Structures are given as C-alpha cells and as structure tokens.
Amino acid sequence: MTTIPIFKQALQTQWDALAPIIQARYGLFPFAENSLQIQGSMENVSHSVYAKFLLPFMALVGAMVPYQGTNIPVSLTNSTHSGEPGMYWQRTFFFPNRKPFVFRSVMCCTGPQEITEYVRFGFGLRFKVIEQNSGIVYKDHGYVWKIGKISFPVPLGLVMGKAYVEEMPLSAAEFSMKMILMHPLFGQTFQYNGKVSIVHA
Whose CA is closest to 129, among 17, 28, 36, 4? Predict the structure, then answer.
C-alpha cells in the first residue's frame, strides 16, 4: 500500500515537471478521504454520426457524453477514499433544457507511466501518461475488461477508436482540457475541449 498520489506513481520523475496547478489537480492521496472540486466550461462538445451508433453501449457502461453543444458549464469532482487505491472522477455536464449528464469513473495506476480508467462492469481504458509542456497527456494503450482482479485486453479500439486526452496549464489558477476519440476509418467520433479552475480543495 502506498500513499503516493496515483498520477505521481505513474509519472515518477516526470511529476516534478508538471505545473503547480496540474500537480494540485492530480495530487490527491490514495487510501485517504480527499476531494477536489473543479468548475469551468466546455467550449465545444460534439460527436459524429458514427458515434450515435455507439451511444447505447456507451450509456450502458456509463461513458461518453450523449449530447452536443457549445459553452457547456461543467463541474468535476475528484476524490479518494480510505482503503481504496484509486482516484474517483465525477464529471457533470449542464446542457440547456436537459437533465445534467454525469460521467463517473475511477482511475488506478497499473504500471510505470500507465493509468487505467474503469467505468461500469469492469470495462477500462489503459493510457500511457506523460508530462508535456508542464501539462499531462494521456495516450490510448487499449481497452480492457476486468473480472475480479484480472484484466483481459479486449479489441474495442476497432469499434471505439483511440482516445487522446490532454490537460495544460493556462495560468496559476486555470487549465485547459481536451479529449478526442479518433476512429481509424471514420475519423474523429467524439471530442470536448474547454477551460476549468480548481474552486475547492
């Protein structure tokens, strides 16, 4: 059991090169009760026609935002809990005239420079995480399905495409967020991008 922040476990010596705002965003300690509140706006949330065919499955496992829009307010809560090694994420998107959409997941360090994000039913996406320009970049390393304590690779990338995520410092108080899902045949199928700030730690 280690109390080193989950992303510091993965990034190792690269952690020290992150901007203070990014370290604060990812610095929650596992195996303890901690939370962090972030608010901001997504300049654009969109998906392609192909992605509409994926939405029923994604809704089942609790991933992918099913709506589209611009300047969408968002609220994000990160938390860790006693007795648990992961960092919990709750992302809430406030689309006009719709019930807020909540996307929940948990991220765990699963190896050097590797984070796996799990959603419902044990489905997960492995990422290689690296420091870049004082921010953090996630590069897709394949989907997994966790049964008990064992994770099996699954070829969902052929259906879903590859994910790319980056979070970059903009100032001492604000950072940008970008997420893209790119299919090898159908191109970009989903994306959001915007700016957020830590409002409570």
Answer: 17
The residue type found at 79 is S
Which tens digits make up the pLDDT trace of 24-62?
Answer: 999 999 999 999 999 999 999 999 999 888 888 777 776
> Which of 75, 137, 151, 71 lies closest to 108 in space, CA to CA?
151
Global pTM exceeds 0.90: yes
Q: What is the pLDDT of residue 149?
A: 81
In a domain, 1, yes or no: no
- Give the Å distances, CA to CA, from 171 to 7, 19, 21, 135: 21, 9, 8, 12
Backbone angles phi, psi at 7, to 5 degrees: -75, -25
Domain with 158, as residue range(s), is: 6-200
Domain-located, residue 166: yes
**Number of independent structural domains in the chain:** 1
For residue 179, is it within any domain? yes
